[in-house]
Fold these 4 entries.
Entry 1:
Amino acid sequence: MFRSRIHSGVALTAGFALVVGLAACSSGKEDAKAGADTKVTGKISISYLQKQGDQEYFVGEAAGAQAKAKELGIDLKVVNLGNDANKTVSEVNAAVAQKANGVIIVVPDPAVGPQVVQAAKTGGVALLASDDQICVDGTDPSKCAKDKLVPRIGFSGTQMGGEVGKRAAAEFTKAGWAEADTAIISAWKQDVTVCTDRVTAAKDAFKTATGKTVKNIDVGTENTPTSAQDKVAATVTANRAVKHWIVWGCNDENVSGGVTALQNGGYTADNVIGVGLGAYLACKDWGSGKPTGMKAALFINGYEVGALAVQTMFDKLKNGVAMPAEAFAPTKMVDAATWKEAGVKCSA
């Protein structure tokens, strides 16, 4: 897995793919970079601000960031923002007040993007988005001009969703279910652009792979197991005629909650196909040895993203290397037979 640096701002090693945006003449691109261009000669200080920092993915991301910071001799402060938009802005202001050189952030709500960008710019602090996109002018990131997106380290939502949709299609075909008896639950927090990208790609990939038009039900959640379980339970109650269910979503939390709701609703494991995204909750089902509707999950390693984000910020601050528009980490589909070998760590 990834342990090396980005070199010259345009190349990644160990399987990372890099997408570099075109240079722009507009002030929007300058705003998106949101940091002074002066190289830091002394010790570098960075704040890593994360939404939902107690989720296993983000715990791993923080660990990767801390390990890379130790290797590079960086002072790193990790802050759990939860889902608090107000805390997001106050913590960025605190980082500025504490003379941090850079801020890496996973925003709980993209609506606070303009405030985050402005605070960083005013304070002369370099800004890098982790995982979720941020648009400088507050536009929905999915509709934001590329030159107004803050540089981002994470995963390709389209690629991830495509892998989920293809695996769900393979499981559906193997099960031999009738199209008319089956429904898909797509569960995600619908104002988070990267989540929408994942779900949309899953739908497209499933349709392409199967050639079937299976009924899809979009379920809005808070991207937590409890929220997904509650919302999916209500959906199932309203659709009792459905015999077989396919569940996917933005993350493992959505799929795990959905699978649990279906189990509680009386559906057996052989009538449910759940394909998670993260694998850190899916593996708990597999480790139990009991039949489960969680058939597979895409393993995404937050540790690698945290390390890469810190390395990218270091290269910018210490060596003046321009941050890439986007840098993506690799993913791997796992299931009950392969998750241990792949190195998945289950959530506590």
Entry 2:
Amino acid sequence: MGQGILLSGSTEVDFMIHGVFSYELFGQTVWITTTHVCVLIVMLIIIGFCIAANRAIKHATEVPGAFQNVVELIVEMLDGMISGVMGKQAVRFRNYIGTIFIFILISNISGLLGLRPPTADYGVTFALGIITFTLIHFNKFKYQKVSGVLKGLCEPWPIWAPINIISDLAVPVSLSLRLFANILSGTAIMALIYALLSKVAIIWPAALHVYFDLFSGAIQTYVFCMLTMTYITDACNTGD
């Protein structure tokens, strides 16, 4: 925990990613970093919640208890958000959108638990951007066919094709950088506060955690998922 997994507890300014331990694989040294550990913790939290939610729904009662209410509220809110943006395409993509929404949100607010948010590592956010990028173009070729894709690249005039190609290739970069930069900035500020003001950083940093981890984290989660849904819906639009 002293290797940068936790934000607090250090007297030096430190918000970098550190190696926790290494092992040899095919003659190469592979490092398990603080990001891997934090991602694992986030995944265990989500898996634990999903198991508990599954049991609650299987034993659902006509008068739901507190936990069943929470589970149903989360599902209804996610379904409402996805359906409001994607319309008839919502049924096909709600599992993916719901999954990345919950993962990104828990990752962003993990700073409230003292963890270094996994989304403050560009390797995590870029991977999410690549997955979304792949899904966008898979559906674009599926619904618009090659002719429709080529036609879209040449709009409004064929001379714009290189610019449209660059615009398409920039999607995963813009998605990932927006999320990464916003979460990293909050992580860096909190690390500076704990390191430089450690003697007086008592109780009041909680208000900053609420803003950087909870408020900003929730907004960035919503923005990432909203853009993802918009891009995918546009890709599925055949123009008919």
Entry 3:
Amino acid sequence: MTASSSPITSEMLARLSGLELRARVLVEGYLAGLHRSPHEGFSVEFAEHREYVPGDDLRYLDWKVFGKRDRYYLKQFEAETTFTCHLLVDLSESMAFRSSDAALSKADYAKCLAAAIASVVLRQQDAVGLTIFDSGIRNELPVSGKRSQLQEVIRRLEDSEPSGESAIGDVLHDIARRLGRRSVVIVISDLFDEPDHIAAGLQHLRFQRHDLSVLQVIDPAEAEFPFDEPARFLGLEDQQEEFIEPRLIREAYLEEFTAARRRIESACHAIQGDYVLASTDDPADRVLSRFISHRDGGERR
């Protein structure tokens, strides 16, 4: 899978009016870079084998089985025709952050990615639902594959602004108890919560046999901490101010930030989930391509 030659930057998206137009441009940029069908990006779990018959797609031959049995078998998937996708979008207060050099806030960037993913899912005639959350579930759109579903996803995202504290782990547990049939679950969040709590929530979803992907959205300043002069820093959610000498805490901050990110990434890999890190200054179409290629690249069991 290759990306389009002209990346769609956050600056370009910021100049577009409305989430619908941003999502359309993003999806068109992503599709322009494809050399194969987007249907391949969202297969749900590997289920079983069946014996090869002439005319079958050779890409799904299992060569390991051939080596053991000297016969050709194909991998079959539990949802290779249709599947259900649940988009979980974090719009807690911390998602409102936008550093001085960033074109989009984390929330706006996350909304673009969520709307684009919904569009790709619906294009392949599958079904998508949306849950917007902070410390609890704020807005739920039931799963549907109707043509009008994308407009409803976009409307609800546009009508929701970041507010409230985050409690991602609790929300994931709640959603795990509420979801019915086995689904693809995509979490889009800055993951600003206790990593162990998030990991436990992800494990709960996986225990229910859902297929998990996590898209962590961060601002470049959060990853780089490019501050030099003493200043008052405002809490992202508790709104408390604190006077800080950045040079004294940069090393400790970066160590803690990296450790938390790696803890979540490790938790995703441990449950055969996908993890993609996206900075708001990354070209969004290339993040979308990277995300779908992650989903396309692994065998889920």
Entry 4:
Amino acid sequence: MNGLADAVLVVHAALVLFIVGGLAAIWLGALFDWQWVQGRVFRCVHLAAIGVVALLALLGIACPLTVLEDWLRHDTGATQGFVQRWVGRMLYYELPAWVFTVAYVAFAALVALTWRRVPPRRRDRRESASSR
């Protein structure tokens, strides 16, 4: 089960990277005209991801990925492996829950503000028809 728990941990880290790195990519994409970060699908998925995280924190619900990882590691008795030790250090901090809630809600607000300041591009009908 430890290998499965490590896989959940890596997926969790990838989601965090998508949320945090996605915001940086959106702003850089606005500067350098990167089409892939200006698309509506990317932007909707990004906003939804941080929105779910913030909502779960506001409702006091533990992250399902953390709960699943903990469940998979329960009573394994094994020592920490490389993935658990290093990826876990990047994800988990000993702070009060309210600190995370404030951080997640503030980050979600920043992503929403970014939506207004750097709106996703709408595809022109002529442009989409010519690309078929």
